[in-house]
Design a protein that fits this description.
Low-confidence stretches: none
Shape: elongated
Structural class: alpha/beta
Number of strands: 6
Strand order of the largest sheet: 3-2-1-4-5-6
Largest sheet: 6 strands, parallel
Order of helices and strands: EHEHEHEHHEHEHHHHHHHHHHHH
Distance between the termini: 73 Å
Mean pLDDT: 91
Number of helices: 18
Oligomer: single chain
């Protein structure tokens, strides 16, 4: 039987890994053996080995891949994990099976630098995953008897992009694990907001993703995830913009409105957009706008902005029963937003809170009063 060795740092595992692994398993009819590395030669993992192992287990289950995880390298005491040691171990463990060893296109060109690469090529059949436009070292391919998997890695996704919140192209279970264990970008958020606010932010993101799913994904999942997760990132103003005068200057620049027309509670939404752009490198204007107006609303809101606004206001962790509003949003995002606006306006009036700042007033006028006029 073929045993397909699929190694990696998996920090974290992403859907690119999973797609390739599943395709190779089908093409080469073998049992996948995932080998997470503790101390690889070419890179230094940023996350504890146990977390990476747990995410690997979750991803394999989410993706419904039939395979096993080999902990040989994780349990090794060696300072560096060399593939030759893993291959020899697996050859002894499966003496009657053929070992297939999967590498990426970039490693094809580095393979002559690998420790005992010639021995690896004798003990296994090396299979490489190609990449469009990538120039392969034919000398290495011939020297080490490599064969093309005929599977292509687009190179459009990397673990670092997930760590930096530039992509969420991994399984839902892995994303949930990242949130629960405060890894990567969640840990970075702790620099700005306190634990209670972070719990709220994750809850709003979870709700926004559920609503988008219930509506059959009218909005890009990545945009929903990032905008809802980072919506309150400026809440405590733990930034390099500490003095109020600098904050006011920035808000006037961003909103093009006189700061005197805005209540202080609205400041954080503008600072949040600044943090998202400058520190989290989020450049998508639709995401930034959803963050920038999530507390006040505005006229001419995008559907993404409506979803983030509503999800924030009806977060199930708030101290009222928002079930009917959540259900309204899950049935139709736009109508759920309108229902949330009406409910929120009543709340603000009853508690004598601001409804007359420029953005909130224009939002209520357009979406509440405007809807009334349309129905007449």
């Amino acid at each position: 039987m073929n045993k397909i060795i699929f190694g990696g740092t998996f920090d974290p595992i992403h859907n690119g890994h999973l797609r390739i692994a599943k395709a190779i398993q089908i093409n080469f009819d073998g049992e996948l053996i995932f080998v997470p590395s503790k101390s690889p030669r070419w890179k230094t993992p940023l996350t504890d080995a146990n977390h990476r192992l747990n995410m690997l287990k979750i991803a394999i289950s989410d993706y419904q891949i039939k395979g096993t995880i080999e902990n040989y390298e994780l349990e090794s005491e060696a300072d560096i994990n060399y593939s030759i040691d893993t291959v020899k171990y697996l050859k002894n463990k499966y003496p009657n099976d053929k070992l297939l060893f999967v590498i990426g296109a970039d490693q094809v060109n580095k393979f002559h630098l690998w420790k005992d690469g010639d021995v690896i090529s004798k003990l296994t059949q090396i299979i490489f995953v190609n990449r469009p436009g990538f120039e392969l070292d034919l000398e290495n391919i011939n020297k080490f008897n490599m064969i093309n998997s005929n599977i292509y890695d687009s190179g459009d996704i990397s673990s670092s992009e997930i760590r930096d919140l530039q992509s969420i192209d991994t399984t839902d279970g892995v994303l949930k694990y990242i949130e629960t264990n405060h890894l990567y970008y969640i840990k970075k958020m702790e620099k700005y907001i306190d634990p209670k606010r972070l719990i709220h932010s994750i809850s709003v993101e979870n709700l926004a993703m559920e609503i988008n799913k219930a509506n059959n994904y009218p909005l890009d999942k990545y945009k929903v995830y990032v905008a809802s997760l980072l919506h309150d990132i400026g809440k405590l103003l733990k930034t390099d913009i500490e003095d109020e005068e600098t904050v006011k200057q920035y808000i006037e620049k961003e909103s093009h409105e006189d700061i005197k027309l805005l209540p202080k509670f609205a400041y954080h939404q503008f600072i949040g957009a600044k943090i998202a752009k400058e520190d989290f490198k989020i450049n998508d204007e639709e995401i930034l706008e959803a963050i920038r107006y999530h507390a006040t609303g505005k006229k001419d809101m995008s559907l993404l902005s409506m979803l983030v606004y509503a999800s924030d206001k009806i977060d199930p962790l708030r101290d009222f029963d928002s079930t009917w509003l959540i259900n309204s949003c899950k049935k139709d995002i736009y109508q759920g937003f309108i229902d949330t606006l009406i409910d929120n306006k009543k709340y603000l009036i009853n508690h004598k809170k601001d409804i007359y700042n420029i953005f909130t007033k224009q939002c209520f006028d357009m979406y509440i009063e405007g809807n009334k006029n349309e129905k007449r």
